């Protein structure tokens, strides 16, 4: 029989060997085990991860990251009129503030009005995978790594079925807007990014009667499968914060869905890994789930260069970990 001391020594040896072989940052289960021996007492820490992205910050990050801006709409954190007036111009929404607040009230008759645990807690480590739709996921074999995170946020219609080896199978949150909507499993949070009052009207309808016909730049589905108890709606004031604070650019455009999802993850998570962003190995911008159609998929109406710089800076500061794929 080995003595306990000896077993501990062997275990420690194994762990360090594994750590050298694997990338320690990405195996949070293992980091958790190590954490018990190396971290200060729980009550002095912001979160239970080895490193919490909201602590020990550099001045640029601290200047931008404002934890008192609430990402999701609740009755308590309703939209201030000035934020509504900024937001309604994004897609030329002619609605009044009164009609907007009426739709929001109606929505909270259907979806729960709750705090979505967006603050870090000393007893929790919220590790997140933000999964974009870039073709650089093809052949990446990231599936198991992506699935090992607590929170897995996917964007628009990026499928998992048939692509599990590269993109994983679990989805805890799916970001969408009416024009990109799809059916969800019963345990997936629908995270609506609204760009106009009609988007909220659409949400009320798809979760209930399905009778609202939405006219938009593309066909919009009238009915989807989703668990209404898990619906979350990004706050227009949060979109304004992303645009004005993180991009700091008074241009007439607004941030891309992918960029907004990354900033949102800073507010929902203590560790962020980003997958499926950027170009593929040929330098083409395209999706992993379809053949290349459009070489200008890159920026749309958004400021791609500014967004790229911010994401690069977050990565340089180790606030997010970029996985560039193949
Ligand atoms: C952070 O956001 C809150 C709520 O929107 C705002 O009142 C406050 O001024 C912001 N803080 C900074 C430093 O910008
Ligand atoms: C979906 O989840 C809800 C709880 O959020 C539960 O009440 C319901 O029975 C589930 N439906 C199915 C089909 O599993
Ligand atoms: C990627 O871009 C290159 C150069 O623009 C092009 O030749 C190639 O066909 C593209 N790849 C695919 C898969 O279409």
Automatic annotation (TrEMBL):
The UniProt record lists the keyword Transferase: yes
Q: One biological-process term from Gene Ontology?
A: sialylation
Specify the enzyme's EC class, one word.
transferase
Q: List the disulfide bonds.
A: 128-269
Tell me the pathway: Glycolipid biosynthesis; Protein modification; protein glycosylation
Keywords (A to Z) from UniProt: Disulfide bond, Glycoprotein, Glycosyltransferase, Golgi apparatus, Lipid metabolism, Membrane, Secreted, Signal, Signal-anchor, Transferase, Transmembrane, Transmembrane helix
Q: What is its EC number?
A: 2.4.3.2, 2.4.3.4
Record-linked InterPro entries: Beta-gal_alpha2-3_sialyltrans, Glyco_trans_29, GT29-like_sf, Sialyl_trans
Topology with respect to the bilayer: Single-pass type II membrane protein
Annotated signal sequence range: 1-23
The compartments listed are: Golgi apparatus, Golgi stack membrane; Secreted
The entry lists its GO molecular-function terms as: beta-D-galactosyl-(1->3)-N-acetyl-beta-D-galactosaminide alpha-2,3- sialyltransferase; beta-galactoside (CMP) alpha-2,3-sialyltransferase activity
Q: Which GO terms describe its cellular component?
A: extracellular region; Golgi cisterna membrane
Catalytic activities: a globoside GalGb4Cer + CMP-N-acetyl-beta-neuraminate = a globoside MSGG + CMP + H(+); a beta-D-galactosyl-(1->3)-N-acetyl-alpha-D-galactosaminyl derivative + CMP-N-acetyl-beta-neuraminate = an N-acetyl-alpha-neuraminyl-(2->3)-beta-D-galactosyl-(1->3)-N-acetyl-alpha-D-galactosaminyl derivative + CMP + H(+); ganglioside GM1 (d18:1(4E)/18:0) + CMP-N-acetyl-beta-neuraminate = ganglioside GD1a (18:1(4E)/18:0) + CMP + H(+); a ganglioside GM1 (d18:1(4E)) + CMP-N-acetyl-beta-neuraminate = a ganglioside GD1a (d18:1(4E)) + CMP + H(+)
Q: Which family does it belong to?
A: Belongs to the glycosyltransferase 29 family.
Oligomeric form and interacting partners:
Homodimer; disulfide-linked. Homodimer formation occurs in the endoplasmic reticulum.
Name of the featured protein: CMP-N-acetylneuraminate-beta-galactosamide-alpha-2,3-sialyltransferase 1
Q: What is the species listed in this Swiss-Prot or TrEMBL entry?
A: Myripristis murdjan (pinecone soldierfish)
Q: Which gene encodes it?
A: LOC115367308
